[in-house]
Amino acid sequence: MLKMASTGRKLLLVAFFVYSTAQISSFDLFSYLVSVIEHLAEVEPGTVKCVFYGLSSQHPFDNELETVLRSPRLPFVTKYVLSGESTLDYTQLPKEPTLVLIQGSNVVPFSEAIVRTLVIFNPGTKVVVLVNTATIDYQAYLSLLGLYLKFRNAVLLDKVNMKVVKSQAVELKIGFDLIWDLKHAYVKFRYLAKLEIPKYFDKAQRLYRYRILDESLNMEVRVYKFFERYPLISTFEYALTAFIESGIWTYWNELHERKECGMIGESLETSSFLSFEDIFPAMVFIWGNFQFSNKSSHNERKQQDGVGGSALGIAANLLIIKRVMQQRSRQYLKVGRSANG
């Protein structure tokens, strides 16, 4: 496992979860939710837009949502209030709000009104659903948000003990965990490849931290496991950075998302879709250039020249990869058109 820096706004890595097993008061939950919004206001550009959605058909805001809505600490927030299963003008809602805060209820969330409302939000939207796991069947919410609507940054928060609800029901365990430390709100994004992620000990802070790849917001954070003394960790980090910063990784992920959303027809052939094996040779070539530049460098000046020369090889290979991806993209789009008539 390694930690890699990338361009753009960085994700805030949290050392460990701070969960309380005791029951949390309504005031603590209120303060926590307000702190989350304040934190997002600091790190997100533009106007802060929050959607408050009460699913209960009766008194949907006679709960924590009303307290947060009336908070004097949030005068800068543009608030959109949705209640129950009432119909509304969907054109008035932002497609990419800063946060969607949902008060869960005992009703089945797969109603037409609820689905029609949630589907207008971008899959990368940050969503928090407040539930009480003792009384609410949260599995239905996990299925709705994770499998059906494919929200990548959605989390269910048990409002009784402030624990993030986890379940094997969601195959793509992508989300952000909210950590309460009584002072600050932290938002952390990660791709949960495994339930247990290796940690390392930060001697300066005297804390255990997660070994994950640090990437830009709204991108998947992939977790890679290596042996403790894997000899190619530095070269792998260098190669993966090149792919991410060049935009190749983002473009590749977009192709995956378009396939998953069913926008290109059901008869899409697997052979017309880019796989990891397609880019692996170029990644090996990048590793080779990186190794060559390091071995040929005996001082700082020569090392800079070596990396500069290596960049030419990397750029050439990235162009080749992008050309292959564009050809694959045109191929499966053609398949999609024929499938859709």
Could you please describe the fold and organization of this structure?
By secondary structure, the protein is of the alpha/beta class. It contains 8 helices and 10 strands. The strands form 3 sheets. A 6-stranded mixed beta sheet has the order 2-1-3-4-5-6. The protein has a two-stranded antiparallel sheet with strand order 7-8. Strand 7 and strand 8 form a beta hairpin. Helix 5 crosses helix 7 and helix 6 packs parallel to helix 8. The N terminus and C terminus are likely disordered.
Record keyword descriptors for this entry:
341 residues; alpha/beta; Rossmann fold; 2 domains; six-stranded mixed β-sheet; two-stranded antiparallel ribbon; 8 helices; 10 strands; 38% helix; 16% strand; globular; disordered C terminus
Please give the alpha-carbon distance between the first and last residues. Answer: 46 Å
Total of DSSP H or I helical runs spanning 4+ residues: 8
State the shape: globular
The proportion of residues in beta strands is 15-25%
C-alpha Rg, in Å? 23 Å
